[in-house]
Amino acid sequence: MAELNLVEAVNCALAREMARDVSVLLLGQDIGVNGGVFRATVGLQQRFGAERVLDTPLAETAIVGTAIGMASMGLRPVAEIQFSGFIYPAFDHLVNHASRLRHRTRGRLSCPLVLRSPSGGGIHAPEHHSESPEAMLAHVPGLRVVVPSSPARAYGLLLAAIRDPDPVVFLEPTRLYRLFKQEVADDGEALPLDVCFTLRPGSDVTLVSWGAMLQETQAAADLLAAEGVSAEVIDVATLKPLDMPTILESVARTGRCVIVHEACRSGGLGAEIAAGLAEEGLYSLLAPVQRVTGYDIVVPLARLEYQHLPSVARIVAAARRTLEGS
Questions:
Q1: Does the keyword section mention Oxidoreductase (predicted)?
Q2: What is the pLDDT of residues 15-70, one digit of tens each?
């Protein structure tokens, strides 16, 4: 066991898989000599060589296109996009090639590609550096979208993503990179994809979230507990495919649900989860589903972004509304 923050856990998982499987290689801007803008790949080029940790030009389209070619020929590339706001030039390749390769070739080829990218706000960055595009990515058939919420989950989920035979977009919450440490066992044990994790049992209301927003969500659960409200906290973790049964089972117990995400409200994953509850869990609900989200605006610059991110107070207020609506 070692005490690691999230960025160290990512580095540890990458090193573990590169040592285990010679087909795993990394590519991206400044990831080799400099170890990445957030130091997620520091030391890996020195350990595994420049042929397996490749510095690329500043060209997201080329990074992902090259990685797709590598994946189709039996390699397992892990490509890094420096910030998720820079992912859009590569969207063509993700939608038209990575996600469709297995279908297009009737299973003769697959695309075991992982696309890593820092995502979300909280570091006072300029425009394009604090975006949360997970809903756009999750809308694409054939893409798996994963968002870890802690160092231990980042380690285990990244191992699983690299071993998966199909493309995975792995969005790493920038705000969590160095926010806290926890014990992580570098044992090579992957965590399961496509399942939610129940972080806290409860009986009065279900709080559903993912990524960095689990920090505020769990803090809200603590405040609600002090008021005598028992909140169950669910970490979605894999946004696509979505583990709706776990959420439905929780809401069947609590009768209420609050969904929290920092991405814009319109068309967000919260709406997809709310639709699933309306379609399959309506008779379990004792009150309308509440969503606590970012606003439908470009993420504000610098410190103003904290006005955009959901707060503990907004989550607690939403939970109280569900309780009053029974």
A1: yes
A2: 999 999 999 999 999 999 999 999 999 999 999 999 999 999 999 999 999 999 99
This prediction's pTM: 0.96
Q: For 122, how many CA atoms within 13 A lie in the half-sphere containing its CB? A: 23
Residue 207 identity: L
Select which of 129, 139, 261, 308 is catalytic: 129
Tell me whether residue 261 is one of the annotated catalytic residues: no
Q: For residues 8 and 50, what is the distance between their CA atoms, to the nearest angstrom?
A: 21
pLDDT recorded at residue 124: 80
- Both tokens assigned to 179: 């926010």
Give one DSSP letter per residue of 171-197, joined into a string.
Answer: EEEGGGTTT--EEE--S-PPPPSS--E
| CATH number assigned to the domain comprising residue 6 | 3.40.50.970
What's phi and psi for 282, nearest 5 deg? -60, -40
Helix (H, G, I), strand (E, B) or coil at 153: helix
- Domain with 256, as residue range(s), is 197-324
Mean pLDDT of 103-109: 94
The answer to whether residues 161 and 262 belong to one domain is no
> Are residues 167 and 201 both part of a single domain?
no
pLDDT of residue 326: 60
**Over pLDDT 90: what percentage of the chain?**
91
276 burial type by CB count under 10 A (0-12 exposed, 13-18 middle, 19+ buried)? middle
Beta-strand relationship, 238-240 and 144-146: antiparallel
Q: Considering its fold, how many domains does the chain have in total?
A: 2
CB-CB contact of 232 with 256 (8 Å): no
- Give the up-direction half-sphere exposure of residue 316: CA atoms within 13 A in the CB hemisphere: 16
User: Under a CB-based contact definition with an 8 Å cutoff, are residues 53 and 41 in contact?
Assistant: yes
Using alpha carbons, select from 246, 253, 133, 140 the residue that is nearest to residue 205: 253
